[in-house]
């Protein structure tokens, strides 16, 4: 449950939280693409840890798409 504050300290931790949140929301990678403007390939590579160091703006976009505010 992500109703409170979530603190992440690494891209890997951010990735894990966002994958779990996407699944909690019952969203597919394709739906994340449509909502975020990122490509399916890009999102899938981040989730599969093929893209090990995604850009901060990409992580913020994914976090916002999953309903998180980044502060």
Description of the structure:
With 71 residues, the chain is mainly alpha-helical. Helices cover 56% and strands 0% of the residues. It has helices at 11-24, 29-36, 40-47, 56-65.
Determine the fraction of residues in helical runs and give it as a percent range. Answer: 55-70%
Low-confidence stretches: none
Mean pLDDT: 86
| Class from helix and strand fractions | mainly alpha
User: Can you count the helices?
Assistant: 4
Distance between the termini: 19 Å
Biggest sheet features: none
From the alpha-carbon coordinates, what is the Rg to the nearest angstrom? 11 Å
What is the tally of beta strands?
A: 0
Q: Which of globular, elongated, flat, extended, rod-shaped describes the shape?
A: globular
Q: Into which percentage range does the β-strand content fall?
A: under 5%
Helix-strand pattern, N to C?
HHHH
In short:
With 71 residues, the chain is mainly alpha-helical. It is built from 4 helices and no strands. Helix content is 56%, strand content 0%.
Give short descriptive properties of this protein.
71 residues; 4 helices; mainly alpha
What layout of secondary structure does this protein have?
Blueprint: H1 11-24, H2 29-36, H3 40-47, H4 56-65
């Amino acid at each position: 449950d992500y109703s409170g504050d979530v603190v992440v300290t690494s891209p890997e931790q951010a990735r894990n939280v966002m994958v779990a949140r996407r699944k909690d929301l019952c969203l597919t990678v394709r739906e994340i693409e449509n909502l975020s403007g990122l490509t399916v390939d890009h999102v899938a590579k981040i989730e599969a840890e093929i893209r090990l160091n995604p850009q901060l703006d990409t992580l913020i976009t994914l976090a916002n798409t999953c309903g998180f505010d980044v502060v």
